[in-house]
User: Which sequence fits this backbone?
């Protein structure tokens, strides 16, 4: 069974540009979470999508947004990139059921110059 | 607001040693606690999940315990190996589908 897949794995952008990151959850998982891991900082919760709806968002500006598609895959969009947006962006999916166990992908490494 | 702390921040041990990583959290109203491993520049690999009603979970050489009332969890690694070198993260959740709050991690190096 395939795990959580993310694309692209690495990308470089310049300040002011826009970026879209993609995530495919494990088959059968309906919830997708996005986290940011900036250098020297811990994992910060960004967004949570379930059944196509945004359920919760972390303390990030509105230029961070996303969506979830009917097949439960998700996109994270970041507009007007700033240098401090350079980070590893991790996607996780959650299966139905009571365990609450998250499964993470390998991440997308974004560098903003 | 839940805060999760991991001590020590870094640890270096010789191969073969048993070791304990610590995780503490400020709000004991948790639903579960998950331990992860992260290799440099990589994603997170789930190691163990403990539900709030459980005291411990074991997987191979790993054993995680949970004391919810005191806000603490430990990850015990037996007979450490160089391949265990990684950053270990603990995270707590408040519900079945709530976001996880992560600790800052313990960077482990196991030397030959």
Assistant:
């Amino acid at each position: 069974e395939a795990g959580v897949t993310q694309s692209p794995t690495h990308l470089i952008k310049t300040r002011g540009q826009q970026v879209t990151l993609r995530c495919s959850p494990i088959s059968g998982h309906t919830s997708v979470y996005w986290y940011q891991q900036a250098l020297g900082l811990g994992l910060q919760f960004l967004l949570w999508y379930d059944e196509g709806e945004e359920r919760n968002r972390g303390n990030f500006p509105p230029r961070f947004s996303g969506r979830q598609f009917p097949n439960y895959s998700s996109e994270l969009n970041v507009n007007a990139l700033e240098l401090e947006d350079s980070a590893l962006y991790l996607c996780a999916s959650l299966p139905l059921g009571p365990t609450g166990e998250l499964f993470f992908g390998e991440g997308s490494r974004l560098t903003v110059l | 607001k839940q805060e999760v702390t991991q001590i020590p921040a870094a640890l270096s041990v010789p191969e073969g040693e048993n070791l304990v990583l610590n995780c503490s959290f400020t709000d004991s109203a948790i639903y579960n606690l998950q331990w992860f491993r992260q290799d440099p520049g990589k994603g997170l690999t789930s190691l163990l999940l403990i539900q709030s009603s459980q005291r411990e979970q074991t997987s191979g050489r790993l054993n995680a315990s949970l004391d919810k009332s005191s806000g603490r969890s430990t990850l015990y690694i037996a007979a450490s190996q160089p391949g265990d070198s990684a950053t270990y993260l603990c995270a707590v959740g408040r519900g079945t589908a709530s976001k996880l709050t992560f600790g800052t991690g313990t960077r482990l190096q196991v030397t030959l």
In short: Chain A is about 0% helix and 50% strand. The interface with chain B takes residues 4, 6, 31, 33, 35, 42-43, 45, 48, 50, 55-56, 58, 88, 90, 92, 94, 97-107, 109 of chain A (CB under 8 Å). The CA atoms of residues 39 and 87 of chain A lie 6 Å apart.
